[in-house]
Design brief:
Blueprint lengths: L5 E6 L6 H9 L2 E7 L2 H5 L5 E5 L5 H15 L2 E7 L7 H8 L7 E8 L10 H6 L8 E8 L1 E4 L2 E4 L2 H14 L3 E4 L11
Helix pairs in contact: 1-6, 3-4
């Protein structure tokens, strides 16, 4: 196992979560990435490694996950941005969290529609990815929106990374980056 804070595994961290990944590495985490272009992204980033896989390809994801675990050991921290949870790969990541007998925190990043006020079942359904896994302490981070005079807008990459880092520091079961209420008509 690496020196420092341990292994942080990030799926989908090469775009909107890049600044969060860099900050975790600066703070002493060994950060591994699984994404389509993770190797290129992590090249030259101290304390970071990339393992290429599209999470829609279960076999490729399994291979990348195995390589990430070999590189960094069992992850004590995970950040997962899966555009859909209707695949086996989010569960595979949740199953990989934590060393035997030790718990790890998995921050599941989801879009604003998952927290739509008219669909209170969506967040619990998303949380099912870690159901029955004693080593995986699931935390959810909802990417809300920002209301401005011109209307609603998505969070910027900087706002998303800052929000995820704040969620990790606060360690709450649910963090909303931006807002989801009131739900604007143009985001229905």
């Amino acid at each position: 196992m690496a020196e420092g804070l341990g292994h942080a595994l990030i799926v989908g961290g090469t775009g909107m979560l890049a600044a969060a990944a860099d900050r975790l590495a600066q703070d002493g985490w060994r950060v591994s990435h699984i994404a389509r272009h993770a190797t290129t992204f992590a090249a030259g980033r101290e304390g970071q490694a990339g393992f290429d896989a599209d999470y829609h390809d279960e076999a490729a994801f399994r291979a990348a996950l195995a390589a990430a675990l070999e590189w960094g050991g069992p992850p004590g921290l995970g950040i997962a941005w899966f555009r859909t949870l209707k695949l086996p790969t989010p569960r595979l990541m949740a199953e990989a969290m934590g060393a035997p007998g030790a718990s790890a925190r998995l921050f599941q990043v989801v879009g604003s529609r998952t927290a739509h006020p008219n669909h209170p079942d969506r967040l619990p359904r998303a949380a099912a990815v870690a159901e029955g896994l004693p080593n995986c302490l699931l935390r959810q981070v909802v990417l809300g929106f920002r209301l401005e005079p011109a209307g609603a807008r998505a969070n910027t990459n900087a706002e998303i990374s800052a929000g995820v880092l704040e969620a990790i520091a606060a360690d709450r079961p649910l963090t909303i980056v931006g807002q989801v209420d009131p739900w604007p008509l143009d985001r229905a």
